[in-house]
Amino acid sequence: MTDTVTVALLFGGRSSEHSISCATAAGVLAAIDRDRYRVIPIGITHDGAFTVQPDDAARFALNAEKLPEVDDNGTRVLWPDSAASRELTVIEADGSRSSLGEIDIVFPILHGPWGEDGTLQGMLELVGLPYVGSGVLASALGMDKHFTKTVLQQAGIPVAPWVTVTAHEWGTDPDAVGASAEALGLPAFVKPARAGSSVGVTKITEWSDLGSAVETALREDDRVLIESMVTGREVEIAVLGGRPGQPSRASVAGEIVLSGRDFYDFAAKYLDAPGVELVCPAELSEGELAQMQQLGIRAFDAIGGEGLARVDFFLTADGFVVNEINTMPGFTPISMFPRCWQESGLGYPALIDELIQVALARAAA
To answer: Does the annotation count 17 as an active-site position?
Structure first.
């Protein structure tokens, strides 16, 4: 029996993916090995307040009727004021203070800006707290689709053609933006540079729809990508970073099969909407799987990934094209990341354990 490891589980946050983060927390709370880990659930409200939340998976489970969220219960978590301590303090709603004890590792399962983009990771670095997942640079790169593509393209990894448009460019010269976009051809996708879970994404089949699509994306970010639609199978692979001195490794592949939707949108990903099927393992030849695993690891390593990621591909007639990298993929019950590892022989509780142990080993190196 090993000593109990104290894990601060961070979820919620200020982004539009707040509810998905809560649902991921529900999955982790339900599956983590309580004999090995003491969990402190810390929910971040929509306004950015750090609060102590109930250790209750059902409270944050995904529900299509009412998406889960972090309620502001009046508590406030105080982080250490230097790297000399790992003790967390809570101010209760009545103003009293108490210690939450020292934590061994932070597990930040936030999606989107102010969580998955390196900002939270920077805060944890400043106070010397070890954490699960990628560091500041890889988190920022993975969150920003423009810079992800730029880095992968430089590394010789195929990506879909795109143009990036700022809010200023759109506001001052929309005709020039339209002319640049038309070179990509139709259909095309318009998406925020820094958002996930398909929030703010629009598929367009007529250039007359470009304006409304850009405006939708600009509600999520001040930079927008316009991408050529890539025709091919949508396949994904999960990557785990190794312990110090060990290589990253990739799972079997999963596939998103659309049968009645334009694309794999928010409702299909998280609300179990019809018209999509997640197939895992995907039907690939040994050579295709090996190539996909190699490309997934190359992409992960190219951005300096650590801990975990899901790499999304299109399998076209000419081979694989990387769509994007998610450095904090969802852990909801219907998410592809844990399913790919389950089909690779690593179950959900064991996957959580591996992520924590890799992070602890990295912190101790």
So the answer is: yes
Type and span of the H or E element at 91: strand 87-91
| Matching CATH number, 141-158+231-364, of 3.30.470.20, 3.40.225.10, 3.40.605.10, 3.40.50.300 | 3.30.470.20
Longest dimension (CA), the chain: 66
Is the domain spanning 5-131 CATH 3.20.20.140? The answer is no
Residue of 171, 146, 173, 175 lying closest to 160 (CA atoms): 146
Residue 339 falls in the annotated catalytic set: no
197 catalytic, yes or no? yes
Residue-wise pLDDT for 187-239, tens only, equals: 999 999 987 657 789 999 999 999 999 999 999 899 999 999 999 999 999 99
CA angle 343, 241, 269 (to 5 degrees): 50
Per-residue model confidence as pLDDT tens digits over 1-35: 458 999 999 999 999 889 999 999 999 999 999 99
The arrangement of secondary structure in 162-228, i.e. its CATH architecture, is 2-Layer Sandwich (3.30)
Q: Which of 86, 194, 310, 362 is catalytic?
A: 310
DSSP 8-state assignment for residue 15: S
Q: Does the active-site annotation cover 310?
A: yes
The pTM score is 0.90
User: Which has the closest alpha carbon to 53: 22, 85, 99, 96?
Assistant: 22
List 12, 15, 17, 362, catalytic entry = 17
Query: Do you find a cis peptide bond into 187, omega within 30 degrees of 0?
Result: yes
